[in-house]
Amino acid sequence: MVWGSTLDLVKDAITQYPTLTFLELRFVFAFLVMVAVVRGLPTRRELAVGLIAGFVLAAGYLFQTVGLQSTSPGNSGLITGLFVVLTPVIDRLFGVALHRRTLIAVVVALGGTVLLTGGIAGIGLGDLLTVGCAVAFALHMVLLSRWSPGLRAAQVAMVQMATAATCFTAAGTAQLRMPTGGVWFAILVTGILASAVGYYVLTWAQAHLSASRTALIVATEPAWALVAAVTLAGQRFGPLQAAGAALVLAAIVGHELAPLKFKSPHEPVQT
């Protein structure tokens, strides 16, 4: 809910403040929060996993936030949600079987994205950057699912926040200036709730759940983004865009619910 609903907040903030500097401050605050609550330094493996996952995470937020400059929060949330169906596709690179339902869901979701943007001609740079964000988030989910079991979630999350902050500091510091009250609010909400708390919880959860099962739980993110865009930002969809939004949501949720429908009631739940 936090990840989906804060897109409007970020969109408003980066119209008033440099994008890279906003991301720098967001993740610096996230790192400081983690430093304040984490007890113990990361091990070498926790450091390595956090560095790699943090770099991928930074790439995803760079694509998403820069993309928000030229696309709507609702579109950004729905397109970002493609990571749910892209997660098993990337998992295939690690030898996990790819189900037919995944291929169908990817085709339907991409078709819905085209309609959402108003057709092929309506796809803009912001939409394409957000697709790159979805790919990065899917890779991030797969890496954490494979590498985080047995590691301390708080230490791994702290290293991720530090890595992301470092990635944005080089470019963001050049444009650093005092934010306004509204921008500070966006920095604190996204830094503390959406970054420090959010990725601590995600890292802990993925030590216990598969990447695809985690994707099922966070599949509501694009729905929350859509609700926030309509109610808070006043975004309106024409018939074509509404059909595209419905297809994207149907592909995401349908893909994750399909295996539950056909699971035997006597089959144990995989954890």
Compute the number of strand runs. 0
- Kindly, what is the distance between the CA atoms of the first and last residues, rounded to a whole number of angstroms? 23 Å
The radius of gyration is 18 Å
Which strand-content bin applies to the residues?
under 5%
Low-confidence stretches: 264-271
Which structural class fits the helix and strand makeup?
mainly alpha
Mean pLDDT across the residues is 86
Helix-residue proportion = over 70%
Largest sheet: none
Cα shape = globular
Q: Helical segment tally?
A: 13
Sketch the topology as an H/E string, one letter per element: HHHHHHHHHHHHH
Q: What kind of assembly state do the chains in view correspond to?
A: single chain
Describe the structure using short key phrases.
single chain, 271 residues, globular
Q: Brief overview, please?
A:
With 271 residues, this protein is mainly alpha-helical. 73% of the residues lie in helices and 0% in strands. The protein has helices spanning 2-5, 7-14, 19-37, 44-67, 73-80, 83-91, 100-116, 125-147, 153-172, 181-206, 211-217, 221-231, 239-261.
